[in-house]
Amino acid sequence: MGYPSQPQDPYGQQPPQPYGYSGPQPTHGYGYQPPTSPPPPPPRRNTGLIVLLAVGIPLLLLGGCAAVGLVLFDSSKDRVVTEADSPVARMPSKQPEANQPPATEPAQQQPQEQPRQEPPAATVGGAITLEGTDPGLKMTVTLTKVINPATPAQDFMKPKTGNKFVALEITLANAGQAVYSDSPTNGAMLIDGEGQQYRTTLFDVREGQSFGGSATINTGDSRKGVLVFEVPEGAKLAKLQFALNSGFAQQKGEWTLS
Fold first, then answer.
1. What share of the chain is helix, strand, coil (3-state, %, to 5)?
2. How far is CA 184 from CA 69, 154, 166, 198, 226, in A?
3. CA 64 vs CA 51, 58, 149, 168: distances in Å
4. What is the structure's pLDDT at 59?
5. Is the preceding omega at residue 115 within 30 degrees of 0, hence cis?
6. Which end of the chain has a smaller Cβ tally under 10 Å, C or N?
């Protein structure tokens, strides 16, 4: 038994078929076939991403290794500089024991004192050669006589009450290359037995001729005169000291009088 032919609409469209119909499919009017769906697109290939990952990952690894190397190099460099800047001295790790004597610094060597140079000494009648401050100034001084007491040259020019005049005769000979021009009376000092010292006076005595305040002596020449002192009558004469340059020369001669 067959199915009746299906009616068609005027435009050739097939009316809807009942559910489960398996008969021949109706055709559209005028032989028109329904459009078929386009074929699915071909699958996309991720070639670019694969290349990017293949190249980028090694580069990232290389960059990370280089950064780590730089950090390690900088760390070692800082360590070297720090060690170089550290002080050389090291503090002791422990305190010295109580019974251990503390370390002492070596004593500074004191400069050795030069032995004191004693002035040239002589007795009455002896000669001493002295040097002055001027280059080439050298004089030989001889104590020839001691007059104790000495007589004033004028009666109205007498020593004070309780004092007396003492005269010491000396000879000055120029043994150097410079001319001696000085006042001999300024460089003389008389010392008694108690250590009291006396300077010359301006008084004259009858037992000898004074230097008149100054003397000029050329090389090879000499002068003789007396040095007059006023001392107590009971003074015991002990020494005569004499120096050139009015007593300012470093070298001094000394004569023992008793």
1. 20, 30, 55
2. 95, 23, 16, 15, 10
3. 20, 10, 118, 111
4. 72
5. no
6. N
Calculate the alpha carbon distances from 222 to 54, 74, 109, 120, 176 in Å.
122, 92, 49, 20, 12
- pLDDT means per 10 residues, the chain with 258 residues, are 49 52 50 55 64 69 62 49 46 54 57 63 96 95 97 91 97 97 96 96 94 93 97 96 96 94
**Count of residues in the chain:** 258
pTM over 0.85: no
Tell me whether residue 166 is exposed, middle or buried, using C-beta atoms within 10 angstroms of its C-beta: 0 to 12, 13 to 18, 19 or more: buried
Neighbours of 250 (CB within 10 A): 13
Determine how β-strand 252-256 pairs with β-strand 121-123. parallel
Neighbours of 219 (CB within 10 A): 14
CA distance 126 to 63: 107
Which is nearest to 186 in space by CA: 242, 226, 146? 242
The tokens for 35 are: 């459009």
Q: Please, are residues 255 and 124 in contact by the beta-carbon 8 Å criterion? A: yes
Burial group, residue 119, by CB count within 10 angstroms (0-12, 13-18, 19+): middle
Straight-line distance from the first to the last Cα atom of the chain, in angstroms, rounded to the nearest whole number: 193
User: In the numeric block, which tokens belong to residue 193?
Assistant: 């037995």
- CA-CA-CA-CA torsion sign (123, 128, 133, 137): positive
Whole-angstrom distance, CA of residue 201 vs CA of residue 255: 20
